Amino acid sequence: DTAVSQTPKYLVTQMGNDKSIKCEQNLGHDTMYWYKQDSKKFLKIMFSYNNKELIINETVPNRFSPKSPDKAHLNLHINSLELGDSAVYFCASSQRGTSGGNEQFFGPGTRLTVL
Amino acid sequence: DAKTTQPPSMDCAEGRAANLPCNHSTISGNEYVYWYRQIHSQGPQYIIHGLKNNETNEMASLIITEDRKSSTLILPHATLRDTAVYYCIALDRGSTLGRLYFGRGTQLTVWP
Prior knowledge:
- The structure holds 2 protein chains of 2 kinds.
- Chain A is mainly β.
- Helix content of chain A is 0%, strand content 55%.
- Chain A contains no helices and 11 strands.
- In chain A, the strands form 2 sheets. In chain A, strands 2, 4, 5, 6, 9, 10 and 11 form a 7-stranded mixed sheet that branches. Chain A has a 4-stranded antiparallel sheet with strand order 1-3-8-7, with no helix packed on it.
- In chain A, strand 7 (64-70) and strand 8 form a beta hairpin.
- Chain A starts with a strand and ends with a strand.
- The mean pLDDT of chain A is 91.
- By secondary structure, chain B is an all-beta fold.
- In chain B, strands 1-9-8-3-4 form a 5-stranded mixed sheet, with no helix packed on it. Chain B has a 4-stranded antiparallel sheet with strand order 2-7-6-5, with no helix packed on it.
- Chain B is globular, with a radius of gyration of 13 Å.
- At the A-B interface, strand 5, strand 9 and strand 10 of A face strand 3 and strand 4 of B.
């Protein structure tokens, strides 16, 4: 009965490859997010989509392209992977109408390792 | 959004109350105080939020000082499962579009 799910949980790949991480939420929320947590444990927002529309893009390299096919899904595609992309990526969702969407539900994370 | 300051670490005996402080001396009238926690290797978890009144839910209580320059998150009966990093975030609900900025937080260790 997972609220926010991500696949895969672990992803190990070579530099230069292209990879995708998928996120799904079954909470009926209208807003979804991607966060990145680096090796120093800083957690930073990358993107946010509200009703399939991009509303936050936090100066992320354009090798990262989020795609929201519908309100329940927000996928993250990364081109030409670099060593510095190694991190844990968290997806989250919220209902924007309720207090601005700041009560967010997070997924379990995807640990990406670029070799 | 107002900057928040938290101690880097605290510990607490199991069964006792854990009181986690947060300073937000530059908080503005529109900014709420939110608390999240992150248990090791898991995604962050929303705990509670408040504006000026004290708040309580099934997880915790939030005490905000009258001048709103600081707050305390209280876990009334800490358990080992409450060991986590706790984040205090001050933000304006109307303007952030859900943009949460997580600082370093406080590593709470509950010991048996």
